[in-house]
Design goal:
Blueprint: E1 11-20, E2 25-31, E3 44-48, E4 59-63, E5 74-79, H1 84-90, E6 97-104, E7 115-120, H2 125-136, E8 143-149, H3 158-167, E9 171-177, H4 196-203, E10 210-215, H5 217-230, E11 238-242
Parallel strand pairs: 7-8, 7-10, 8-9, 10-11
Antiparallel strand pairs: 1-2, 1-6, 2-5, 3-4, 3-6
The structure holds flavin-adenine dinucleotide.
Length: about 250
Amino acid sequence: MTDASPPAPRQLLRFRESVMETPSVRTFRFDPPGGGFQWQAGQNLVMTIPGLEDPRGPTRPFTISSSPTEEGVVAVSTLIRDSPFKRHLAGMAPGDTVENEAIEGEFVLEPGRPAVMLAGGIGVTPFRSMLRFAVDTRLEKPLVLVYSSKTPEDIVFRSELENFSRRNHAIRVIHTITRPEEAKEPWEGRRGRIDSELIREAMRGVRHPLVYVAGPPGFVSEARRLIDEDLHISKEDLRTDEFEGY
Ligand SMILES: Cc1cc2nc3c(=O)[nH]c(=O)nc-3n(C[C@H](O)[C@H](O)[C@H](O)COP(=O)(O)OP(=O)(O)OC[C@H]3O[C@@H](n4cnc5c(N)ncnc54)[C@H](O)[C@@H]3O)c2cc1C
């Protein structure tokens, strides 16, 4: 017996439309491939643009920002930068296709458990999927999202997140803004980076939560340091998702 099982066939994702979430983040919606497409809230796909010439190659992992409960759509939300990969994405016309090589990741919602979710910037994508799932399936365990953005204008899914907490009272969203001086709109809310005090506040009244952290590697390592040094959360209760490439 060998373990040389053939690689899973690549699946075609047909581009449908895109929407600007913020001046720099765009959501791309695709039709799911025929033959079934299953994932858990929080997982990522592995997107390839065949034939693309890009110094970093034609493949990027992206969290699926839609929820498995949103039938008939697969969405990814990404920071638009000037790489050939992102230029290609931004220039797609409806009907164009990209390939999905795999669904990956253990950064998934455990529906039976309360959770505290720490998001840095574009790291909010898995939490949009998880919270939408919690709304659609009427989960009742507390879910607290602490979301750090540079300015209010950079808050991705802002009105959807508000809507989620209105529709499901187990969901609470706490925003913090790290560069209020660059904001175009006045910001009366919380300022500064996520620190131990804010995480403690988010955890208050939430019994034995899973703690999720997602964002650029610098954000994840800083959150992990706070959690290790100041908060007594065991490794089994911590899940992290590093968005390498930022
Ligand atoms: C598990 C996982 C999930 C992810 N989910 C998401 C997601 O939901 N959304 C998402 O957007 N990304 C996600 N990423 C990151 C994604 O895979 C890409 O790495 C990222 O989007 C960057 O791709 P790019 O083509 O813009 O840059 P690349 O061409 O890949 O360049 C990456 C590197 O180039 C440098 N660089 C390139 N352009 C710039 C610039 N304009 N300014 C500064 N530095 C620059 C940076 O040093 C960076 O490290 C995820 C990654 C992982 C591992």
